[in-house]
Amino acid sequence: MNARPQYIWQQAGWPSLQYDLVRVAGSLTKARRAQGIVEGKLAVLGFEQKLELAAEAWSQEALATAAIEGERLDLAAVRSSVARRLGGGQQIGPNAPRNVEGLLDIMDDAVTRRNDALSHERLYAWQAALFPTGYSGMVKIAVGSYREHADPMQIVSGRVGGEQVHYEAPPSERVGEEMERLLEWFNNGVESDSLVCAALAHLWFETIHPFEDGNGRVGRVIVDLVLARDSGETSRLFRTSQRLLDHRDDYYNQLERAQHGGLDVTDWVCWFVDQMQAACDEASSVIDDTLVKARFWIEHSDKVLNERQRKVMNILLHAGAGGFEGGMSTKKYESIAGTSRATASRELLELEAMDLLEQVGAGRSTRYYVKLPGWVPAGKP
Description:
Elements: H1 21-42, H2 47-68, H3 75-86, H4 98-112, H5 120-130, E1 135-136, E2 139-140, E3 154-157, E4 164-168, H6 175-187, H7 194-208, H8 215-231, H9 240-246, H10 248-259, H11 266-299, H12 307-319, H13 330-337, H14 341-353, E5 357-360, E6 367-370
Antiparallel strand pairs: 1-2, 3-4, 5-6
Helix pairs in contact: 1-11, 2-3, 2-9, 4-5, 4-8, 6-7, 7-8, 7-11, 9-10, 9-11, 13-14
């Protein structure tokens, strides 16, 4: 008697993944509507504003996809590298390590070469870019090729000696054949809806787990590639990895559940498309904030600010409503602007007099907030 398949790749009929279109349709409709709203709002932004949004989203996405794997990146180094690539923003900053540059390289490649076929060689290059030294931490790994080791490829957690196996991928000798089928499906455009394609491709790739390391980051760049084919440069604004990081436990649980189930992956597709809708909603909110800031500066275009005042105002506006915790104090202004306490106090009063800031509290509790609806805390005396 044959044992019941433990993993999806052991199912008869693998890799013919299936889903219930009727169930998925509702999620797709909401996601497409959210995507359309983003594109509509972008139409009223100028080139520089779009560039700023894209740069920040790309930087945060790089941090997020690394953080999902437990790796922390230097935000300043990432931002300066992204600015150099896009040709705008603050390009002067610390140099990013080679592995971080490699991550940005493959994220950029997915967007700029979105219409090129996804090949074995392209995937090799993506994975190799993540490990320029040939090591993952202190461990030497196969770089620029699929795994060939005889040991099982397992996803485990827990301490040494008490590990819990969450998933075991197909053996290494099957990886080449498995990847050939995935790439043939992907490049032939069998799945017409890009969001469903992204969901299926990501699950399929992570199920094969073809590399010794870097599978998560490469798998999420495949999602970037699909979204770029669908939305072009606009796709840079969709912080999909940030969304997955914010719901990392659920992300892993949904993947694990699908990998332990049958070929009907409707639940996974619905969940994934819902995350794409949420990412679009979040992008829409970011654009709204940008529009608020743009209107703010237009309304106050007649005001003359010195360099220090403009720097502080931009920091407050960038933080958003409630984003600059505790408001702006004289002490904070002094530190940010690099000036004396007396100058900080005077310049804050000038900004208040120009109706750019509103004062809350008195004495040592005095704080200043951007004078915009909803930005000043309630309870002002």
